Amino acid sequence: MKKIFFLFSLIVVLFISFYYNEEIVAFFVNIYVQKTETTTTLENNVYASSRNYQYIQLTDDFMPKDKKHLINLYYTILNSGMTKFTFFCPKEYEECISDVNDLSDDQGLLSTINNYVPVYNSFKNIETEFDTLGKVSITIHPVYTDSQKEEINKVLETVERTYIKEAMTVEEKIKAIHDYIINTTQYDKARSDNKVKQYHSDTAYGALVEHQAICGGYADAMKLFLDRFGIENYKIASENHIWNLVKIDNQWLHLDLTWDDPITDTGEDVLEYSYFLITTEELLSLEADQHVFNKAVYLEAN
Q1: What residue ranges in the chain does DSSP mark as E strands?
Q2: Do residues 177 and 275 both lie within one domain?
């Protein structure tokens, strides 16, 4: 009965207001919409992280206040592993829908957010829908299928059981995985040079199951192991390249498996350590083109 009375009152108010003030109409419509629809409850899956970083942080407030809060909200949703989520822009944040529109179109910024997200929760693409009343619905299409995750996890368990010993230091564990990935993976030159997609070489599936990878595959594979070991890390990117940033003894260091697995003229497999746990200064002294990153984003590397 109360619902019927509310609807009747709403119709009367809208009818009277229509000829006088469009803002009043919008106000009452917005009240009704938010009474009947609510923000999705966040549910983290087993892969979700609890990590916060200087550029981006998890949030439990799903009513964004500004662009920075909106970025944190997207990070929180992606980090959770959920594939659908709805939230509402408050009327006090007048630029909210405009900022949502800009963010949904900014593939560079979305990719940056993705670099902080656990590998299995990362997205292939995101669909964002919104209306003038402030409702925002996000649909996330993950990179990894359930069957791919199952296959990769078997490899992770086997490699950890075979190559990782309890007495190892953090550096020794990272070196063992660094060596395993490079020794069992070929750089997918056909994908890199000619855009021929024979393998999932931009993912950990390519690196660990198909044994073919480009930089994204090397970085994802390494991150999966780093996360298993509880080592704080994220992926760091330049315009055309991606690698890992790792925290050891309160120091952030670069780890680039792609460049430690160089292609030789003779076709010989080579394992190098030039880009193994080095400082930013050392990184840029070795190579200053493909490793130029946004220092306003990847703040831990400064």
Answers
A1: 84-88, 123-130, 135-142, 186-187, 212-213, 233-237, 242-248, 251-255, 276-278
A2: yes
Note whether 164 and 230 are within 8 A (CB): no
Rounded CA-CA distance 224/245 in Å is 13
Measured from the Cβ of residue 198, the count of other Cβ atoms closer than 10 Å reads: 11
User: What does the alpha-carbon distance between residue 182 and residue 260 come to, in Å, rounded to a whole number?
Assistant: 8
Q: Are residue 129 and residue 5 in the same domain, yes or no?
A: no
Q: Is the pLDDT of residue 29 over 80?
A: no
The whole-number pLDDT of residue 121 equals: 98
Which residues span the domain enclosing 27?
Answer: 1-35
- Centroid of chain to Cα 190: 26
pLDDT digits (tens, 9 = 90+) for 174-219: 999 999 999 999 999 999 888 889 999 999 999 999 999 999 999 9
Please indicate, yes or no, whether residues 68 and 99 belong to a single structural domain of this protein.
Answer: yes
